[in-house]
Amino acid sequence: MQNSTTIGFIGAGNMAYALISGLVNNGFNAQNIKVSDTDKSLLSLRADEFNLEVFTDNTELAAQCDVIVFAVKPQVLSIV
Fold it and tell me: Rounded CA gap, 6 and 15, in Å?
């Protein structure tokens, strides 16, 4: 899947993991995926597994992405 679109995920949990895995397993370039979360251990896991650029600041992430995916639970959405 040749695509230069940069996708940013806000949230690095199970939902983001499933979506990122699907993208990467279907040929999407992991270099075009970025992830933001407040949980540094989750960010470390995602960075190690997929070689992604990670952020703890959602604004920084959004500034570098063409598409933003909110991969958080509904009760957290208003906070992020």
Answer: 18
